[in-house]
Amino acid sequence: MSERRKQGEATRRRTLGDDHVNRSQQTGTDFDTPFVDLITEAAWGHVWSRDTIPPRERSMITLALLAGLGNWEEFALHLRATANTGASAEDIREVLLHVAIYAGVPRANHAFKLAREILAEMEETDD
């Protein structure tokens, strides 16, 4: 395992949480292992591990891109990760307002719906 891959694994765990990463690894197969290696090294090791942009802001950028592109499963995953990155509900709202203007109201509308549901779930588990 390369140093970049190890760094990516640590960043992925710090951002998404051990439970998610462990579940992901348990359901992996020989077929998708090369893909997991790729995203762990490239996305998590090369991009998310850079210290130029703090995790909070990187998380907000990621949410905007995922919502703007309509990648709802990944949007939900990264919205839950805000518990670890420090992006607040207010930050998420601001991101989604930007999505409405720059990527379209229908995408933002759906993202707001998902965010309301997920943030409520997260609040319940914190209680």
UniProtKB/TrEMBL annotation:
Biased composition (Basic and acidic residues): 1-22
SUPFAM superfamilies: AhpD-like
Top enzyme category: lyase
Keyword annotations from UniProtKB, A to Z: Lyase
Pfam families, alphabetized: CMD
E.C. no: 4.1.1.44
Xref: InterPro entries: 4CMD/NDH-1_regulator, AhpD-like, CMD-like, Decarb_PcaC
GO molecular function annotations of the record: 4-carboxymuconolactone decarboxylase activity
Domain Carboxymuconolactone decarboxylase-like: from-to ranges: 35-117
Renumbered residue ranges of the record's region Disordered: 1-29
Protein name: 4-carboxymuconolactone decarboxylase
UniProt source species: Acidimangrovimonas pyrenivorans
Source species taxonomy: Bacteria, Pseudomonadati, Pseudomonadota, Alphaproteobacteria, Rhodobacterales
